[in-house]
Specification:
alpha+beta; 4-stranded antiparallel β-sheet; 3-stranded antiparallel β-sheet; 13 strands; globular
């Protein structure tokens, strides 16, 4: 359950925030209406506590298993994290979620979505509060188009490294929350084929942030085990003036913003 009041933000005009109460834990989030969409104006900070379990114990693929071994996923007791395991970071930046956590794959009703899903893009409530959902690729693109893909209009005015400043004219409040893993020594196994594009420092607080969408890709068939191993994320970086999207390994821990269900989906 959740409750929310409406919010609005006219183009470059005064910002009027609404309020969302997540009745699961009592946390209160600011919300803002941008164009036809109503978004959380803060990163989700709901503690998704579910031990990682390999989806298919009979699945054997040495290289793919190595990803999970390197990431330590076989021994994790949660699929959401505070940056650097610091609770104060969660209070400021929200939690970081593996894609499976963002889509709430631990729930029985979501298993068709998470296990060998045939549709690449879906409408998913995920771990968002009631009447809110994980944004689709197109919903993120609608937001990006609204500001002509210019990141500065959605970034906060402070917190970014290299003297990068945002304008935050719409109240969306993008903070450089970093990502999981927290250090930059991992190999291309972690970052998918776009490893070089991501760069080695964008996992760090102050330098970048990426948000999950529901759109999957990177379909693989390893000896009878089929899955999409990547999903699209929308990202902001200290060294890029544009909002950009690209595939990210589902083994990364990224931020989550929820968007309000439309009337048609209620």
């Amino acid at each position: 359950m959740s409750s929310a009041t409406e919010s609005s933000s006219s183009e470059w005009g005064p910002i009027s925030y609404g309020e969302l109460v997540d009745e699961r834990d009592g946390r209160v989030y600011r919300t803002v209406k941008i164009g036809s969409q109503t978004w959380m104006a803060e990163n989700l900070n709901y503690a998704y506590i579910q031990a990682y379990e390999h989806r298919d114990s009979t699945y054997k693929c040495e290289n793919y298993d190595e990803i999970y071994w390197r990431m330590g996923l076989y021994k994790l007791d949660s699929l959401s994290f505070c940056y650097n395991n610091d609770l104060d970071s969660c209070k400021k930046y929200g939690r970081l979620y593996l894609w499976d956590a963002a889509l709430n794959c631990g729930e029985e009703e979501n298993k068709p979505v998470c296990e060998g899903m045939k549709k690449k893009s879906i409408h998913s409530h995920g771990i968002c509060p009631e009447k809110w959902h994980i944004p689709s690729f197109n919903e993120w693109k609608t937001l990006s188009n609204y500001v002509s893909d210019s990141a500065k209009y959605l970034k906060t005015k402070m917190e970014w490294s290299d003297d990068t400043t945002g304008l935050d004219v719409l109240g969306f409040g993008v903070l450089p929350a970093g990502m999981y893993p927290f250090i930059s020594y991992l190999t291309e196994y972690v970052y998918t084929s776009n490893y070089d594009f991501w760069g080695l420092d964008r996992d760090l607080i102050g330098q970048g942030v990426c948000f999950w969408s529901t759109l999957q890709d990177g379909y693989k068939d390893y000896g009878g085990y089929q899955d999409y191993i990547d999903a699209y994320a929308f990202c902001f970086s200290h060294d890029n003036e544009l909002i950009f999207s690209d595939l990210a390994s589902k083994t990364l821990g990224l931020s989550v913003r929820c968007v309000m269900d439309s009337v048609a989906r209620n």
